[in-house]
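Look over this today:
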Amino acid sequence: MNCFSPQTRGRLAPSPTGALHLGNIRTFMITWLLARTQGGRLVMRIEDLDHPKNKPGAVTGMIDDLRWLGFDWDEGYGCGQEHDSAYLQSRRVEHYAKALARLIEQNLVYPCTCSRRDVEAGLSAPHSDEALFYEGHCRDRYLDFAAAQAKLPATRVPAWRFKVPANLAVRFTDGFYGEYSQVPAELSGDFVLARHALGAGYMLAVVVDDNAMGVNQVVRGDDLLAATPRQILIYRALGLQPPAYIHLPLMVGADGHRLAKRHGDTRVAYFRETGISANRIIGALAASCGWAKQGEEISLAALLPRFDLSLLPREPFVWRDELL
C-alpha cells in the first residue's frame, strides 16, 4: 500500500451493472491522476444499490480490469481487508436510514406515492430524464410513511422526496466547468431522495458515503453536473461539508450519445480478450486528453509527469474503433 498525504481524498465508485467500458476508464484515469499528482489518497467503493441491474461476477471483473490497467487505491473494497463490506453500499443501509431519520425529524422530506407516469402526466412542458420536474403533489398529502404505504400495492413502497426551498439558487465552482448556478426548485422541484423505505437510494447514499469515507474531491462525467446542486442541498440539510467537484466531458459515440452497446464493444474485458495491451488502452485514452500522441503506448504511472487538466478538451470525446 502506498503512503500518501490525506490532504486530497478521491474515490473510484463503479456500479456492478455490467463490465467497465472505455468511458468509465477515462474518468477513472483522470480521477487517479488527480489524486496521485496531489499526493492524495483513493478510496474504492462499490455502488451496488441497483440490485435488479447488478450482474453476477461484475465486481470481481471490474477489480481485475482496473488492476490489469495499472490502477491502485489506498483503502476500500479489494484491499485485502477483513471488512470489504464496509465499502459495499448494499451493506451500509443502516447508515442511510439514520441520515433519512434526521431529515424526517427536520421535516425536510416526505413520502410520495406518485409513479413516474403520474409525474409525466402532470407536466405541462417538455422534460428531460435528468430533470423530471415534480410539482409537489404529495408534499402535504401524508402524515407519515405508513399512511403513504397504505395507498400502494404491497409490491411498491413510497419514494422519499426532498423538500426543495423555493427561489434558492445553489452556486458552486466546479474544478473544470467553472462557476455553476441553479435554482433546483425551477429545474427539478422536490426530487427523489430514495426509493427504499430505509433511504437506500443513490442521491442520499452517495452523500452519506462520501462524507463517512472522507472523500473531498469527486470526479465524474458532466452528465451529473445538473444533479450536483441537489446533492449540495442534502449536504447542507445534514450539516455536512460538500466535496470539491470536477465534472468532465463524456466519451461518446459517433451519434453524440454516451457510449453504449449500440456503439460496439468497448468493454475493457473485450480488448483484453483480443490481445490489446493495457498500455495501448491507456495510451489511446491519454491521447484523447492531450497527454500522449495517437498510437502511443504508455502506462498509467508514466502519465503522472504529463498530467495537466487544462489540456483536456472541453467538448465530448468521440470514440472510434480505429483508435485501438
Remarks:
- The chain has two domains: 9-91+250-323, 93-248.
- Residues 9-91+250-323 form a domain with the Rossmann fold fold (CATH 3.40.50.620).
